[in-house]
Amino acid sequence: xxxxxxxxxxxxxxxxxxxxxxxxxxxxxxxxxxxxxxxxxxxxxxxxxxxxxxxxxxxxxxxxxxxxxxxxxxxxxxxxxxxxxxxxxxxxxxxxxxxxxxxxxxxxxxxxxxxxxxxxxxxxxxxxxxxxxxxxxxxxxxxxxxxxxxxxxxxxxxxxxxxxxxxxxxxxxxxxxxxxxxxxxxxxxxx
Length: 191
What we know:
Blueprint: E1 2-4, E2 9-11, E3 17-19, H1 20-35, H2 42-58, H3 66-86, H4 92-102, H5 105-125, H6 130-140, H7 145-152, H8 156-174, H9 176-184
Antiparallel strand pairs: 1-2, 2-3
Helix pairs in contact: 1-2, 1-5, 2-3, 5-8, 5-9, 6-8, 7-8, 8-9
C-alpha cells in the first residue's frame, strides 16, 4: 500500500517505509532482465515492468514485507509476459514450445533465484577494489585471461591474482550464494 501518494512512500505491514522511487531504481534493471527470460524484445520487457510498477502504484494493497512486494512484481511481470506471448500469433510455433517451458513453476522459481543471486553477487562485486571489479566483470562477460590482460594492459598473472582475490572476497561475503552463482555461469565463465 502506498500510504502517501504525494511522497510515493510504500508502507509495509512490518513497519518498514520504502520510497517507491528508490525501490524502482534499485529493482527496475533486475525486473527487466527477468522479463527478458519470457520476451525476446527489450522494449516490450521495459514496457511490461513499467506497467506493473504503474499498476502497483495505483492499488492500495498492504504487503507484509519487501519480499512480498518483490514476489508480487515477479509474478505480475511473469503473468504480463505470458499474456503477451499467448496473444502473439506471429510466433505461434515458437510459443508452443517456449510457453510450455516458461509456464512451469520450476522455470519461474529458477529464474527468480537466478536474478536474486545475480543481484547479490553484483552488489558485492561493486564493493571490490576497482581493478578486481574490472577483471571479474570482464571474466563474467566471457573474456579469457589473455583477453583481459590485453584489454586492461596488465600481465596474465596479475589478472589471475585479481580474479583469485575477488573470488576469495565473494566466497567470504556471499557464502552459499557464491556457489549457487557459480552453477549459473556458462562454461566460458559468462552469465
